[in-house]
Amino acid sequence: MFKKIFFSMLMLAVVSCGNNPKANPNINGSFEGIGNGRNGEVKVSVVVVKGLITAITVLESQETDEYALPVFEKISATIVANNNINIDVVSGATLSSQGILTAVENALKDSGANFKGKKLNVSDTVMSTDVTSSASISTDTVTSASIVPKELITTYQVKGFVDSAKKKVLFVHGDPRHYSVQTDMLNTSMKFFEDNGFEVELRDLYQMKWSPILSVEEFYYQKDGKGTPPSEIVKEQKLVTQADYIVFSYPNWHDTPNAIVKGYMERVFASGFGYTSTPKGPKGLLDGRAIFTIMNAGFLGGGRGDVGDGLINKEAWDSYMNAFRVLDNDSAKWWGMSNLGRFVNDRTPKNNSETYAEELQELRVSLTNHLDTVFLK
Hints:
By secondary structure, the protein is an alpha/beta fold. The chain folds into two domains: 5-124; 150-375, 3-Layer(aba) Sandwich (Rossmann fold). It has eight helices and twelve strands. Helix 1 (65-82) packs across helix 2. The longest helix has 22 residues, at 314-335.
């Protein structure tokens, strides 16, 4: 159950406000402390540099990784971001929260500085929007979603659509982290398609600074097809028209497309383009095309693939996959398209795993094998 985990301020923008303790530049050092969690002791090391808490390492823990690690990560991130140890417990994980909070407080008792400010919730963590440091890509300190170690990160540049008879795949990607497992799956997939003779175009929504907001002026165009769409919508609709397949890529945050991808769907697949109203109900206008979804996830039953590919809790896995299938079938039918299913990964290598490279390669192979089955056979 023990896994040594590390949290650093390098990936966080430290909050400067009156609610947080003022840093004492004369306080430096590494301090250790122990607290009691649900299953036993939690031991931490806290590094302070010029009065700022710069790193928290969980040295020992008897807590269950599956439940405690996200709690440790969120609380530690909030402490580091705000230089404040007065943090509220995470709802549903009171004892694990108290374990790390008490350990950190005990560690800092002998530091000679006050690190208690106004009580904060874990949602008060502030994260830099452009994370590039080596520490930021060695562990994800804000969520439980894993990221790829720096030395294993790959990039891929697509060639784009050209005028040819080749099948075309449009990727719509919604993850700001270019070092995430989600983005690694994106790059693996795009390479697979181009290696197999498809043309590929990428719409990286965060990089594009895409707005997911359906404005008042745009609302009736989307809903009723009335008015003129903005130029950025026309551009995306042209790409959708060219594509044979639209692949949505996003991490599972609330079991539906995240806001930026959902906003793309709402703004681009508008009335008069994606569908129209008839006396018998809505009719999709994009027939002959298909959608597919690639999603990195956690706590869905421990599987990799689609329905029937569960590994740990097969019943829970299939329940989630069948629910996603209902959602995807409905979207595809609304637009007149077919749904080719999903590749969902709920077997991400743990951060700092000694066999991360082998596990990541296994994921890549599983993904390409799945794509081969869906698109080539």
